[in-house]
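Worked Example 4.2. Consider the chain below.
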Amino acid sequence: MAEPSTVARPYAEAVFRLADAGSSLAPWSDMLAALAAVAADARVRAAIADPKLSDAQVAGVFLSILSGKLSAEAENFVRVLAENRRLELLPDIRTQYEILKNAREGMIEAVVFTAFELTDAQKADLVQRLEKKTGRSIKPHYQLDSSLIAGVKVLLGDKVIDASARAQLGALEAALKA
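Applying the procedure from the previous section yields the following C-alpha cells:
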C-alpha cells in the first residue's frame, strides 16, 4: 500500500494549481488548515471510517462543520475526496500544499530546537544567518528541547543543522573511540 504522503501529493498539487491560477494561495491555505483540523478530530475520523455513511453524508459532515468557511471550489474538493475515500489524507494534503506555497513565495519553514528560550535579538540573528545561508526567506517555528544541553538544532526541509552541545559531545565521543 502506498504511503499517505504519496497518495496525497496529486491532490495537493491540483489544489495548488487551482489556488495559484486564481491568485488565492493564502485563502486556500486557511481552508486546508481548517479541513485538516476537522479531519484530525477523533469523532470525524470515526465518521469517515463508518461504512454505514455514504460518501455524500461524510462530505456533509465536513461541510456542515465548516459552513460558510469554504469556497464553492473547496466544497467540491471535499466531495471529490469523499468519493475517493481520501478525506483522512487532508493533513498530508495540507502539509504538501504548504511546501508548494512556500516554494512559490521563496520561503522555507525551519523548525528550530533550542535548549533554552531565545531572546528576540537571538531569534532575529539566527533567522538572518539562515536566510543568508539558504538565500530564501525563513519562517521559523521554535521548540524547546532540554536534551540539547546548549546550542540549536535546525530542520530546514530535509536538511539538519545541528549546532547543539549534545551533537558536539557525540562527535567528541566518536573521535575518542576511534
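The mean pLDDT is 89. Helices lie at 4-21, 25-40, 42-49, 55-65, 72-83, 90-104, 120-134, 165-177. Compare this with Example 4.1 before moving on.
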